Amino acid sequence: MVVKRRLRNAPAWNVEPEPPGMCPLCGRELVAGASVDEHHLVPKSQGGTAKEQMHRICHRKIHATFSEKELATEFHTWQALRGHPIIADFVKWVAGKPQGKFVLCDLATYAAAVWPVEFLVMRK
């Protein structure tokens, strides 16, 4: 019997998916659902294939801070990402936030708390 490849490679129906674990950027626990994204350490456009789960807000911060080329050449490890001053400030800020949906769209509050107004105006 011929079975379509997408069905042959599909996960078993009776197997429970593994819990997401911890966010590799901020170290907080991942809660399965809308707050979890997958991140390619080396972007797919730059030839990357490996991906890891992380918080959506952490994922958005990475892509708001770095270009795909920078991610592929300089910031393709978690240590390099956490070592950048903007990401380090973000990790400190998000560490004190509770898990929840409101954190997903709270980047404006973070920016206002961390960066001076003059910097934010210049960046736009």
What features would you describe in this structure?
- Strands 1-2 form a two-stranded antiparallel sheet.
- The chain has one domain.
- It is mostly helical.
- The protein is flat, with a radius of gyration of 17 Å.
- Helices cover 42% and strands 8% of the residues.
Structural class: mainly alpha
Provide the gyration radius in Å: 17 Å
The outline comes out as flat
Helix content range: 40-55%
Strand content: 5-15%
The end-to-end span amounts to 59 Å
Outline of the structure:
Helix content is about 40%, strand content about 10%. By secondary structure, it is mainly alpha-helical. Helix 2 runs antiparallel to helix 5.
Give the arrangement of secondary structure elements.
Blueprint (H helix, E strand, L loop, with lengths): L4 H4 L27 E5 L10 E5 H10 L2 H6 L4 H6 L1 H11 L11 H8 L2 H7 L1
Antiparallel strand pairs: 1-2
Q: Features of this protein?
A:
7 helices, mainly alpha
